[in-house]
Amino acid sequence: MPQVHVYLPDDIVTEILVRLPGESVLRARAVSRSWRRITTDPAFIVAHARRRPLELIRRNRVRSARPPDRHPDGDDIAVNTIPVSGHDVAGRPRRLMRYPCSTKRTPGRSPHGLAVVSCDGVLLLKIGHGIYLICNPVTRQWAELPEVHSSSFVLEFGFYRHQPSGEHRLLCRCNNVLRPSIRSHGASACKHRGRGQGRRC
Question: Where does the UniProt annotation place the signal sequence (predicted)?
């Protein structure tokens, strides 16, 4: 019997995928290049986020049994959500992600995370002076941005998705320096740029 290939237009595939839970959308990315392109498109991500129920974000410090050499500040920090409607399974917060334990005290690091802003469903969390995490609650992925070294203050100006690279970047200003500093995940070093261009990490 000859194999039959069924073709679905991208708009139909998009309408189907946008109704799936986040975990299923992640698995669908592996089906084909076309589906990966659809599910990584910023418009799809925004449309998918709009369909999620309203939820409050809560940070929680998780204390667990740890080896004797573990510093007390090495507890895990979890980001949970509580549905605004209150209709969750057994009324308990649903765990979205866990941060790895830190094994040593880091100056300026706080166990209390502050959600600064979000962009396309990605959260920017400030966990200490010049120390930031970005996380995607749907994919349960997180990354630490390069540390902002500043002796006095760090002022966040913007958190955005850089279209050419697909990176999420943080624009900030440090120590009354007029040149801004740009932080992005995956970079290993900072580069000073000319006037008005700032620094990219």
Answer: none
- State whether residue 73 is helix, strand or coil: helix
Total domains, the chain? 2
DSSP letters for 6-60: P---HHHHHHHHTTS-HHHHHHHTTT-HHHHHHHTSHHHHHHHHHTSPPEEEEEE
Tokens 């509580």 -> residue: 82
Domain that holds residue 94: 53-200
In whole angstroms, give the CA distance from residue 130 to residue 193. 20
Q: What angle do CA 8, 13, 19 make, to 5 degrees?
A: 150
Question: Same domain, yes or no, for 31 and 76?
Answer: no
Q: What confidence score (pLDDT) does residue 126 get?
A: 81
Tokens coding 181: 């500093």
pTM, two decimals, is 0.48
